[in-house]
Design brief:
The protein has 14 helices and 22 strands. With about 475 residues, it is of the alpha/beta class. The termini are far apart.
Length: about 475
């Protein structure tokens, strides 16, 4: 046995690295095992951060090409330098991953480089060396999922990882899956000039979000030039040297359609990643979807072994993983921790952004909750007009009797930032009246949130 620790975390994504830092802050001796060359996990290396770098860069391009003129700005010679854009993205990733390395050093966390294997309670093996720990926390995250019969070669048939590193702008792209990755990466390449077709099995994009928002999103993205084939499944994908042949079929069965695209992006979800971890041998139980089973304290069925992040149940989101990391470390230190899974915001970083928190109207109806809805469009907001971003709305759902805010759904400029206000209000159990009575600066997009709260009581001012 080589070194002994209070805590060994396996995986240095947002769940694992945040847990390691918090545990070290609380005085524990901590090691984090990571097999990637750089820290930060899926999120920093091939997920949130590189995708947002490309989304930001292409949004600026879009603005320069399509909005400057209407704002009285003449810009000529605006063109894409794809290698330059990729270099920018790589630089952003590099700065972030190096930042975590710095934080590990600052907090005296040992990075055990290599693949970790759980050898039962108390022992983790990394590249042939055993390390002991009173407490093992598995944070191995998730990996790309594919469909039966579709092989991702990351050349013609790519996952989100391949879609972040394409060397030329393809003329055509078929995106399988109208979820978050499909729309974010589809938007990136559409803005760069690719003809993007999104094939979605369900009858609407963005499953799980509020129905009204889903419809509005579909309408807006269509206007931006994305093509959608809803209620449709891809039944075969055959790549060759110059492109990919696809066959499509209506989800309910019917006539087959043939398509050809230069690139196919498979974005049909992600799977918990537990490959070669030794969990079966260690007796750790998994659920029917391959996720590690945990209790409210993130404990598995094996004493001393815990799990957090994408590898357990719940939304596969970086901030959810981070919260779990903090709470697990604090529980280990004897403190109490708490996460309200109803109050985890979700954001899609398209333009406009889409954001949600709490219950959807559909969920409230299904649960038989008596609620009131207040909605306000960005079109009626002075700041949104001044920004030239008037698509979308804010919708607030409140309990009909208590007036407590039960959910908020936004499609519009900076929706991902605006939702934070409602998250804070909901954390404190606020009512729609509380939101409406709070003074919001003028002229701001936040006024749309205030007006939606006023609309819950039928008294918006500006409409
Ligand atoms: P991960 O980030 O997956 O990290 C797990 C780490 O464990 C990996 O680095 C892996 O190499 C390592 N590992 C696995 N097995 C072993 C082993 N045996 N030994 C050593 N190391 C191991 N979420 C958001 O909230 N916002 C976004 O904008 C967003 N955008 C995304 C965009 C894309 C394209 C993708 C793919 C995902 C995005 N996500 C986003 C989801 C987000 O990346 C994940 O929810 C988050 O990374 C999960 O964190 P985690 O710590 O659980 O796991
Ligand atoms: P997703 O679950 O968001 O979307 C997958 C989509 O594929 C769904 O709409 C589903 O109906 C569709 N689909 C499934 N099988 C299909 C088939 N055979 N044919 C056509 N469509 C099919 O998954 P994703 O977009 O791959 O993202 C994976 C995870 O990563 C998500 O859980 C998400 O939370 C996370 N992520 C988050 C962000 C963000 O927070 N901004 C960004 C990217 C990824």
């Amino acid at each position: 046995m080589s070194e002994s620790y209070d805590v060994i975390v396996i995986g240095a994504g947002p769940g694992g690295y945040v847990c390691a830092i918090r545990a070290a802050q609380l005085g524990m001796k901590v090691a984090c095992v990571e097999k990637r060359e750089t820290l930060g996990g899926t999120c920093l290396n091939v997920g949130c951060i590189p995708s947002k770098a490309l989304l930001s860069a292409t949004e600026k391009l879009e603005t320069a090409q399509h909005q400057f003129a209407e704002m009285g700005i003449k810009a000529s010679g605006v063109e894409v330098d794809l290698p330059g854009m990729m270099k920018f993205k790589d630089g952003v990733v590099d700065a972030n991953t190096k930042g975590i390395e710095f934080l590990f050093k600052k907090n005296k966390i040992d990075w055990l480089k290599g693949a970790g294997v759980v050898k039962g309670a108390g022992t983790v093996e990394v590249d042939g060396t055993d390390y002991s720990a009173k407490h093992i926390i598995i944070a191995t995250g998730s990996d790309v999922a594919s469909l039966p019969g579709i092989e991702i070669d990351e050349k013609r048939v790519v996952s989100s990882t391949g879609a972040l590193v394409l060397e030329k702008v393809p003329e055509t792209m078929v995106v399988i899956g109208g979820g978050v990755i499909g729309l974010e990466m589809g938007s990136v390449w559409a803005r760069l000039g690719t003809k993007v077709t999104v094939v979605e099995f369900l009858d609407q994009i963005l499953p799980g979000m509020d129905e009204e928002v889903r419809k509005e999103a579909n309408k807006i993205f269509k206007k931006q030039g994305l093509e959608f084939k809803l209620s449709t499944k891809v039944t075969s994908v055959t790549p060759d040297d110059s492109g990919v042949d696809l066959t499509l079929e209506p989800a309910a069965g019917g006539d087959v359609e043939n398509m050809r695209a230069e690139i196919v992006l498979v974005a049909v979800g992600r799977r918990p990643y537990t490959d070669n971890l030794g969990l079966a041998e260690a007796g750790v139980e998994m659920d029917e979807r391959g996720r590690i089973k945990t209790d409210a304290h993130f404990k598995t069925n094996v004493d001393g072994i815990y799990a957090i992040g994408d590898v357990i149940a719940g939304p596969m989101l970086a901030h959810k993983a981070e919260e779990e990391g903090v709470v697990r470390a604090e529980m280990r230190a004897g403190q109490s921790g708490h996460i309200d899974y109803n109050l985890i915001p979700g954001v899609v970083y398209t333009h406009p952004e889409v954001a949600n928190i709490g219950k959807t109207e559909e969920q409230l109806k299904e649960e038989g909750v008596d609620y009131k809805a207040g909605k306000f469009p960005f079109m009626a907001n002075g700041r949104a007009r001044a920004m030239g971003c008037t698509d979308g709305f804010v919708k607030i759902l409140a309990d009909a009797k208590s007036d407590r805010v039960l959910g908020c759904h936004i499609i519009g400029p900076e929706a991902g930032t605006l939702i934070a206000e409602i998250a804070a209000f909901m954390e404190f159990g606020a009512t729609a009246e509380d939101v409406a009575r709070t003074c919001h600066a003028h002229p701001t997009l936040e006024e749309v949130v205030k007006e939606a709260a006023l609309a819950v009581h039928g008294r918006p001012i500006h409409i």
